[in-house]
Amino acid sequence: MTPDELEELIEDGIEDADATVDLPRAHHDRNHQDAHFAAVVVSPAFEGEGLVQQHQMVYDAVGEAMTDSVHALEIETYTPEEYEAQEAAEE
Which residues belong to the signal peptide in this entry (predicted)? Predict the structure, then answer.
C-alpha cells in the first residue's frame, strides 16, 4: 500500500476529511507487511468527538488494510479550527 492509497481510504471513509500520509520509516519494499505510516487527518467530523473516537474513525476508514497492508499507523487528528490554530502557532 502506498501513502496515496491510504490517504484515499481515509478521505473516502471520513466525511470532508483531508488526509496527509507519509512513511516515517524507510522501506525497501513499499508493499511490505511491516509498513509503518503516519497520518494527519483534518475533518469537521471530529468536532465533539474525543481523541479515542477520532482515532477509531480513522481505523474504521482504513478497514481491512490494517490487518494486511499496514503494520502501524501513527495518527494525528484535528478539526479544521484546531488545525488552523496549530498552523498559526508554528509560524
Answer: none
Supply φ then ψ for residue 50, to 5 degrees.
Answer: -75, 165
The pLDDT of residue 69 is: 84
Angle at 15 between CA 60 and CA 1, to 5 degrees: 50
Residue 77 and residue 41 in contact, taking contact as beta carbons nearer than 8 Å: yes
CB 89 within 8 A of CB 53: no
pLDDT, tens digit, 9 for 90 and up, residues 1-38 = 889 999 999 999 999 999 999 987 655 555 555 678 99
Residue 17 vs residues 20, 29, 40, 43, 91: alpha-carbon distances, Å? 10, 28, 10, 4, 23
Helix (H) or strand (E) holding 21: strand 18-22
Domain extents in the chain: 3-90
